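Supplementary notes for students who missed Thursday's class. We covered one full example, reproduced here. Read the sequence, then the structure, then the short commentary at the end.
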Amino acid sequence: MITLEGAITKDKIGRVLDYVELMGRLPNSSSNSPRQPARDKFERIRDLLSEFQGRAFKSTDIQHAYEERHGEPITLSTVCTYLSRFVDRGVVLRSGSPSEWLYTVKQPGTFSWDSVLSK
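Structure (token representation):
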């Protein structure tokens, strides 16, 4: 069950839809749907990670790079969720504390993007 507190806003609805897509409960939308499937965001963030290879970065760095490259907003919570998935899949290492996580992309050859995307 999902509960929204306060006024229902476009931003809150967008976050709920992002969450539902991330959890895999929403089937892929039809090709005539104007909304991008969550997998597209996942792949877009994956593509951005290669630009951060070899250096530590914060979730806000990915958020800004995503918005600059794609010309659309993405919530920080969505970026953090995807980064957490990359950590769980062994692509990204996380250090620091929850108030300020630092991420680093593992060296090429230590993982396969194909296996990451198929999980």
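Commentary. The first helix runs from residue 10 to 22. The beta strands are 92-97, 100-105. If anything here is unclear, bring it to office hours.
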